[in-house]
Fold Tryptophan--tRNA ligase, cytoplasmic.
Amino acid sequence: MSQPPPPPLQEDIAKLSLEDKQLKAVEAEAEQRITPWEVEGAKVDGKLQAIDYDKLIQQFGTRKIDDELLERFEKVTKHKPHFFLRRGIFFSHRELGRILDRYEQGKPFYIYTGRGPSRGHMHVGHMLPFIFCKWLQDVFDVPFVVQLTDDEKFLFKNDLTLEQTYEYAKNTAREIAACGFKPEKTFIFSNQDYMGAAFYRNVLKISKCITTSMAKASFGFKDSDSIGKLHFVSVEAAPSFSSTFPNIFGGKKDIPCLIPCGIDQDPYFRLTRDVAQRLKYPKPCLIHAVFLPALQGPGSKMSSSIDSSAIFMGDTAAQIKNKINRHAFSGGGATLEDHRKYGGNPDVDVPYQYLTFFLEDDEELKQLYDSYKKGELSTGEMKKRCIQELQEFVGSFQERERKITDQDVENFMNPDYPRKFEILEDKK
């Protein structure tokens, strides 16, 4: 019979312990951080990596939007999928198929998304969900509700007053309206204004289902965080239920919603889906977007608090040109000679990445990709094309925004504004 191995020496244990600690340190360094308040790619050897979206799908337990689902979308809606879907900008979902089932059956649903009010202008990354929601609303002809979380802004930003965040909400409502929405189809609300009656009743029901330990596990809250932060989870969840909006749905509790949002917001709605089951409400369905990278590279997203990381909707044409030329991370060669010889890397080139979000022409986008990779298109030329597209996008938005009046904003934010939808009418 073989003898058992001798017990390890103390110095061996210490060595293993040290190696284990070093391994854990490397793993901790390599871990990407994706929360509703922090987005950062993994760090390897101190270098920030691009966000690994396949890993997020696995980690969050969502499903990838595949070709089969896109084919079904086109068959059911008779619309070619938006290029955000075709290019994987909206890449992940929770039960999008259930929404297509309802549309096919002529049953009602609605679209819900939210926005934390901006101190100044929103940046181009903030606009992506609203561009997509406008298209979805046009395709499905369903109600669209937008929650402006001015209360969350107050709770999470110690330097702001409630009055300030409310003003931010009204300014943000104006910018959302400028995306082309109509008040007869869209309700944009400030939580400070609207949270009462039916809304608050749902908040109470939800809050009773979410324990402190569940909130800590989902969001990483600490004992030093305010109770307002923990409670806000139930406030963001409530618009997922149709009974929160009696003025639109007449008190019906069985109408589900589709929530287009960044993948970082998914933790809110994982909890919401669990709560829905307990409250006997339909679970919200979700469709998740990737992040528009910061100008500095694909390892983080644009930030309103870092001017040099973002293109804002209030930027002038000259400011856009200057930011792209000065700050946009390039995937080109170290020199023009190297670039011509070895080609560039469009997969990490920020100007090219931005074009995948804003240039609708698939053929031109492919041509830019191929030419850059071969070294035929220079970094300067790629930046020039990106600048042109962003200047046109921001400029046309600014023209529309100038036409939005104070009365328009009031109409969007008025819960009693007349909103009628054929899909909500009782069929007899």
In short: Confidence is low (pLDDT under 50) at residues 1-29.
